[in-house]
Amino acid sequence: MERGRGGCEVAEPAESEELEHAFRAEARERVLVLDADPAIRSSIAYFLNHRGTPAVAAASAEAALEQLAEGSFFLLITETLPPGLSGLELLSRVRARHPEVDVIFTAGSLEIAFALRAVREGALDFLRKPFELDELAHSIRRARERRGLLLRVVAAEKLAERTRLTEEHVRDAIVALAAMIDAKSRFTRSHSERVASYSARLASAMGLAPEVVQRVRFGGRIHDIGKIGTPDAILEKPGPLTPEEWVEMRRHPAIGAECLRGMGILQPYLPMVELHHENWDGSGYPLGLRGEETPLEARIVKVADYYDAITSRRPYREPLALGKAIDYLRAERGRLLDPDLTELFIEIGPERVLRDRARRRRPEFEIARERGGA
Ligand SMILES: [Fe+2]
Ligand SMILES: [Fe+2]
């Protein structure tokens, strides 16, 4: 683990470890040779062992199934009529119980009907007795290649599943952190949740794709994550901040960005965390970007954040009433806020966003009763 400058930990990817493990497991695997003739089965097993492929022999179908159940085989080489079971019956049991084990049939003469059925049911290859040992080696190479491919797919699937879970865990953890930061001060309680709702509604009203709306919602939820580095005495101060305290407070977008930079899956949210205090006229921070130099998603969160700030109680002022807040929004078009986005936000009616949000959280029976239902 490496520790980033912002105090956030960076995980190393584990893909190579996953594949390494799969291939180490493959290297341990063996071939099982089933033939009624002891001379044939032992000579094949001897040849394979000599060529570096571990192999053991079995004299009957029953013995073969018992050995396969012990594991670590990738291939069964069997005659089409082994003692104990028909070749097709043995094939079907092996496919059902050990799908990772390939089957190669050996036969003095091969019936076409048998071969077709065996292929349909998953046999890998057929060798006509007496066969050249090089021919056998070639068949085994094919089985190994197929096995290698299968292992890669399984490893990739496992990795994808683990990555998905990790992503969810990271997102859950960072949302929990954002809620904790909001809760630290009685003046910002649920601020990020409301900013997320306003931002998503504005993005949706712009006709942006659903995945962008979701991204903006999550960005709104974590936009103030950098306040983790702001001293509690400043966040909870029951009065206006001094100029020095404002300098400290204004570091939070840069601190948030520093934390997110160490986490690959959170990169899409970086602009909303780092740039939600940029102003349309270039007077904002941390970069002093102007107009559309600030990415759209950050400008959306900015409008939502500004509206929530002026309609929330602060230690040194009361929250603005709706009409007054709309006047403030209008006055800041083209100064602090993107003029078009602000106009659209006013059209949506931010009070409706909160009302809808509150309705979604109420129990179903209350909503039904209000509608005249049960
Ligand atoms: Fe902020
Ligand atoms: Fe904020």
Secondary structure layout:
Layout: E1 2-3, E2 9-10, H1 15-27, E3 30-34, H2 38-50, E4 55-58, H3 61-69, E5 73-79, H4 87-97, E6 102-107, H5 112-120, E7 125-128, H6 133-184, H7 191-205, H8 210-222, H9 232-235, H10 243-249, H11 252-261, H12 270-274, H13 296-310, H14 322-332, H15 339-348, H16 350-361, H17 364-370
Parallel strand pairs: 3-4, 3-5, 5-6, 6-7
Antiparallel strand pairs: 1-2
This protein binds fe (ii) ion (2 copies).
One fe (ii) ion is lined by residues 223-224, 252, 276-277.
Summary of the model, kept short:
With 374 residues, the protein is of the alpha/beta class. Helix content is 58%, strand content 8%.
Structural notes for this entry:
- By secondary structure, this protein is α/β, with parallel strands linked by helices.
- It has 2 domains: 15-157, Rossmann fold, CATH 3.40.50; 185-370, Hypothetical protein af1432.
- Helices cover 58% and strands 8% of the residues.
- It is built from 17 helices and 7 strands.
- The protein has helices at 15-27, 38-50, 61-69, 87-97, 112-120, 133-184, 191-205, 210-222, 232-235, 243-249, 252-261, 270-274, 296-310, 322-332, 339-348, 350-361, 364-370; strands spanning 2-3, 9-10, 30-34, 55-58, 73-79, 102-107, 125-128.
- It has a 5-stranded parallel beta sheet with strand order 4-3-5-6-7, sandwiched between helices.
- α1 packs antiparallel against α6 (133-184) and α14 (322-332) packs antiparallel against α15 (339-348).
- The two termini are 57 Å apart.
- The relative contact order is 0.08.
- Bound molecules: fe (ii) ion (2 copies).
- One fe (ii) ion (FE2) binds at residues 191, 195, 223-224, 305.
